[in-house]
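Q: Structure tokens for this one, please.
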Amino acid sequence: MYSHVRSLGISGIDGFEVSVECYISNGLPGFDVVGLPDAAVKESRDRVRAAVKNCGFRFPTGHITLNLAPANTKKFGSIYDLPILLCILAASDPKPFPLPGDDKAFLGELSLEGALRPVTGVLPMALEAARLGVKELYVPEENAREASLADGITVFGVKNVRELIAHLAGGKPLAPSPQWQPEPTSFALPDMRDVKGQQTVKRAMEIAAAGGHNILLIGPPGSGKSMLAKRLPSILPEMERDEALEVTKIHSVAGVLSGSEPMILSRPFRSPHHTISAPGLAGGGTVPKPGEISLAHHGVLFLDELPEFRRDVLEALRQPLEDGKVTISRVNGTLTYPSTFMLVCAMNPCKCGWYGDPSGRCTCTQKSVDQYLGRISGPLLDRIDLIVEVPAVPFEELKSRADGESSAAIKARVDAARAVQAKRFAGGVRCNAQMGSRAIRECCMLDAPAEALLKQAFDSLGMTARSYDRVLRVARTIADLAGSEQIETPHVAEAVQYRSFRIGEQNI
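A: Here is the predicted structure, written as tokens:
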């Protein structure tokens, strides 16, 4: 007896169709699963057998051959438990329910008693099912709200096998899951008004947010570097729906999506510890998963104590910062994860943290300072748009009870600058930091005085072609914030200022 049931799988952050085929033949009892299954898929034999019996159905006694097509694509995880069980019962004699049509797809992990447990990666699979023309998608009840984010498909949340089979057999029908809608929330992000002083740094953060630029904060301990970085999401523009869906897909595949909030609505802020490994940052593993740089997609990746990160970890950032994606190659294939994020870094000027402080408490030699700064490679620094000093806050500003400028006021200016950029680029590129070479030539024209200033800075600072382009992008953002269509000399001067930073005898 033969049957097949439609299901889905995950490759990277995208779903793909999987056809589960079952053939039961006469002969000695056996259960073979083919089609490049991993260990979790092979173990489904025992979970399915126990679930069938505990739900009161007869398990076939012949030789069962299960194929997961396409057979040349590796299948991961426990999501095939439910379609395998349905496929076996549909091929049995007598059948407890009619063979499901191709307009239905199933996925979910089974417990030994037949209850459905939640799985990861449901949203990208639901989106692919909708694209393929599937009309009904059956998922574990805990995953129903996430799957309902896909338009054009009816989602059924299933508690256990018994109620699903009763539904398929024409008995008690399941109720479709309503499409999840976000509820109004009072949750507020940390506000810039809490930061005392640091007006120059706040200005740099505003420029970074307006253009999507990478930024490095350098200053002594307690000067507010981490505090400022954690408030950056509060001045970033709201995510559009397509951005939110893409971010949610990544978090769903990584298994870090909240069950109560199935859609990521605020821009991610990821702050990994400096002990993280290169695969933890870039992604990978035996079963490849997105890393921190992909979890920060369309958001902020904050690296505190930058020189304390291992050199190989920092170098793993170079290609994603340039291309906006990270490619992971394994024996089983190559996966690509998106990684368009704002890199925000913070560091001390030396090992003890007090180099250049008026108190004179720094005990570091110039050699040790150079060694400390040398942990960050030139090519990585070349990919950072703004380098800003964060000085210690004076006592007079700390004791002040007056609030600084609020995040809402700064965000209004950032939103206005982003609106100018959206009109300028009209799709594809979302902000100035993403401009390619051709867009820079078209959108970053300089008048003669501004060009002369940039040439002087290029020669004196020893800029590379990459840093030259980054200065132009930052100058374009500064002009957008000023409401100027033309990049003028003051805009270039301010942009160059953020590329020239000196600690002792060493330029950064």
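A few notes: The first strand starts at residue 2 and ends at 11. The longest helix spans residues 407-425.
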